[in-house]
């Protein structure tokens, strides 16, 4: 189960970087942004926080906020108290942590919603199965949270989003259980699970789901491909996404992103290309994948590896991937702003979106922080578009951090919206993305969502303020 | 454009089989069912039908039924007149027949909803693109109809359903336009297009959509694989669906289905296996596909073909596939019941579902028609299940045809529901499937759908009686 979670920072408290590590981190940021950082601040102490005693009574008008792993980055589980309510119930689903049933023939499993990534993998492994959904929050986030936020995971193509893995889902609403039929596909009316996926705790509490699972990959093939520029790499990623080869990994890092994640590129953009299969060797797939990349100037000096070899760029990147949220917490403790934002757009808009985002966010970093670093990677690619993911790091002024962050976030989301991207590819809406979501959402759908809320949660106690008023 | 459509039978009037062909058909049915058939009946004559003059006034309470190709097999476009309404408007979308815009970089196109299959392919071909969605109604049905009914098409795996091809959609509702954002993927709340897909004209009129399109396949590989029994073939189809090879065609025909569709098998079940790609040769894919089939006893005496060769089983089957609805009309004119029904279920339930359906429907055919023939094919396969498609043919009694059909249909849908299948994989709900759909649909979702209807169509004029009261 592991050690205790930090009550304020990412993940486990004993994984938070110590003082020496934080000082080294400060030096790195100073080098990259050219600005002084630190000194390390005092860390919050749980014992100093005073909580009011629970005072929930049966008739209390108290909002209910379902809580899985608490890893939302968009204010999705904040106990915000709207007017007219008394107190907030944070509904911890952590005890719903079991795989209840496995159907090996149809390759699916009935799983409780409070289960975290590692426990899910461990229980499936007993049946020779795997789920292979690795969001950055994998260690802490839960199946119910993934479904409620339409999380994106391991696969760069095809089954990029948890939606693809949900065969059937059960959600408890204030008006009774909402249980979708267990079928592989149906054409009977609008898909009923479509209302559950992405509902972010506003329509009900997801309690369990039948999930599609996999045999563990027996064959793997991966390659690190270097491009002279991000644009050339993006062209290759697009052709790979449209090729029908369906790589499991097709992540393109810009030079800054590669450097920050410990992948040495000598200033090149780098594409992490991977295939995996439980059924067949992948030589033909990788050979064609490298040919496509090569046609766009991609160089693969080490050739493809079978995936048994360790220590390559994909390993370095994955390790850094799971370490990154800890670093964010540490950076905040050094007085450094660090956050990410992401989107998805069609390929025809990608270059102008990227240009708009880079210029406007870099301008906002200069204006509000005096300096800053912005990096980009493509996390998921589609035949018709891509999901660019941005990270920014900038010096903060003590006491003004929230306001500085808000300004940069606003510039980023405005730039994304202006350039034709969605406000979020996989970070959900929560409270942070509401203003942009309200504009992006078709107006009549907003009214339908409100009507759905009034139908299933007439008292409005479920996660008020998230997705809609 | 072609000749005039029949006002009562399938497709073009001049394609309806003539008297000699109908007599030959009668003999075939007599041979297969062991019962006398015919004689050919008089055909309906349009001139004898009297229509009341249009009497729509501005304030008339008149339901609106969007009409695309008129190919619904579930009563989806019938001008049923509910109580309290005056007259019915059948809204013909046939003039919305253009590809408006093509984005070759993102491989998508903005297309008007009234376009039929052949016109869509013809207009895309001018850009070197294709859509490759071939329901049996391809010649007549429209893009808007496909979206409204969540049609299934060409591909046996992956993009089986039109849902996968819809990037964004525009629907006119009585409360204004409902337009979803043009992005490849988004995690911002429940997917707004999920309410449009499968709405069957009850929430609005679909007018256009951005659709994902393809480069035409340059490589094809296909094979005809024989199995000693349907069960062995189904095991092979399951493993192929779970293999990650993603065949474009993976249709399994039982011996009767193969015979009816002109594929000679000598009593074997036959799997039509095919791969296609615009990007790469498919030798590795087909080799592994045949190995999987072989491990389940599948025999491929002629080996795979590159798809240039004509006259093989897949060709015979495809020709028969598009001819079948004409034959249904001809059979009805001979006093023979002929219809199809379909479902989808998880693999663990497939064998018992198939057994239940065969025994109960054959019993119903005996009971209500005295005899009959029931055949089955798998049209689409998923990692977690399959879509079996059944055809029945039986002698009818003059004057009792509707009642006989109703009894067989009831037995079929009851059997499917009892065995854990959905009431429809791709024939939609319409009016015919309502009783089973009402039970299959999660009860709270039914209430949400009703609330959505009241929000978007408060007067209830859009296709009343379809999907819900």
Overview of this protein structure:
- The structure is a homodimer of 469-residue chains.
- In chain A, strand 13 and strand 14 (385-395) form a beta hairpin.
- The relative contact order of chain A is 0.14.
- Chain A has eleven helices and 14 strands.
- Chain A is globular and about 65 Å long.
- Chain A has 469 residues and is α+β, with helices and mostly antiparallel strands.
- Chain A has helices at 19-33, 117-125, 143-149, 230-241, 255-260, 283-295, 313-333, 347-369, 401-418, 434-440, 443-456, and strands at 64-67, 89-92, 99-103, 108-112, 166-173, 176-179, 205-212, 219-227, 249-253, 269-277, 336-342, 345-346, 373-382, 385-395.
- In chain A, strands 8, 9, 10, 11, 12, 13 and 14 form a seven-stranded antiparallel beta sheet that branches.
| Unreliable spans of chain A | none
Summarize the biggest pleated sheet of chain A: 7 strands, antiparallel
The sequence of SSEs of chain A as H and E is HEEEEHHEEEEHEHEHHEEHEEHHH
Oligomeric state: homodimer
The two chains with the largest interface, and their residue counts, are:
A-B, 96 and 96 residues
What percentage of amino acids of chain A are in beta strands? 15-25%
Number of strands of chain A: 14
Helix content of chain A: 25-40%
| Structural class by SSE content of chain A | alpha+beta
Approximate shape of chain A: globular
């Amino acid at each position: 189960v592991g050690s205790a979670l930090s009550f304020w920072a990412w993940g486990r408290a004993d994984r938070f970087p110590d003082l020496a590590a934080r000082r080294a981190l400060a030096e790195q940021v100073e080098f990259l942004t050219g600005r002084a950082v630190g000194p390390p601040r005092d860390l919050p102490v749980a014992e100093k926080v005073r909580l009011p005693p629970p005072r929930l009574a049966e008739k209390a008008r108290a909002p209910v906020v379902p809580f899985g792993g608490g890893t939302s980055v968009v204010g999705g589980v904040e106990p915000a108290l709207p007017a007219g309510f008394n107190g907030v119930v944070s509904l911890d689903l952590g005890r719903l942590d079991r795989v209840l049933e496995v159907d090996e023939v149809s390759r699916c499993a009935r799983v409780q919603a409070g289960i975290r990534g590692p426990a899910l993998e461990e229980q499936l492994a007993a049946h020779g199965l795997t789920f292979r959904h690795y969001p950055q929050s994998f260690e802490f986030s839960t199946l119910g949270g993934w479904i409620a936020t339409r999380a994106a995971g391991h696969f760069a193509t095809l089954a990029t989003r948890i939606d693809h893995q949900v065969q059937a889902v059960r959600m408890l609403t204030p008006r009774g259980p909402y249980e979708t039929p267990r079928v592989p596909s149906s054409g009977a009316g609008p898909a009923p699970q479509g209302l559950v996926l992405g509902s972010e705790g506003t329509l009900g509490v997801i309690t369990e789901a039948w999930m599609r699972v996999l045999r563990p990959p027996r064959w793997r093939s991966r390659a690190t491909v270097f491009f002279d520029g991000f644009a050339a790499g993006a062209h290759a990623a697009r052709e790979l996404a449209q090729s029908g080869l369906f790589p499991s990994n097709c992540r393109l890092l810009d030079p800054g992103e590669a450097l920050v994640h410990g992948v040495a590129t000598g200033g090149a953009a780098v594409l992490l290309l991977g295939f995996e299969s439980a059924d067949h060797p992948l030589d033909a797939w990788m050979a064609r994948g490298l040919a496509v990349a090569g046609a766009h100037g991609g160089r693969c000096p080490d050739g493809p590896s079978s995936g048994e070899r360790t220590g390559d760029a994909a390993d370095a990147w994955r390790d850094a991937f799971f370490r990154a949220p800890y670093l964010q917490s540490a950076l905040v403790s050094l007085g450094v702003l660090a956050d990410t934002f992401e989107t998805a757009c069609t390929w025809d808009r990608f270059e102008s979106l990227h240009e708009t985002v880079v210029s406007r966010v870099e301008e906002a970093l200069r204006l509000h922080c005096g300096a800053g670093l912005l990096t980009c990677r493509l996390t998921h690619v589609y035949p018709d578009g891509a999901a660019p993911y941005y990270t920014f790091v900038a010096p903060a002024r003590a006491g003004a951090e929230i306001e500085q962050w808000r300004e940069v976030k606003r510039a980023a989301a405005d730039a994304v919206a202006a350039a034709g991207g969605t406000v979020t590819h996989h970070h959900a809406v929560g409270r942070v993305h509401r203003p942009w979501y309200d504009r992006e959402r078709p107006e009549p759908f907003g009214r339908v969502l409100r009507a759905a809320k009034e139908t299933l949660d007439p008292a409005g106690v479920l996660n008020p303020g998230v997705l809609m008023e």
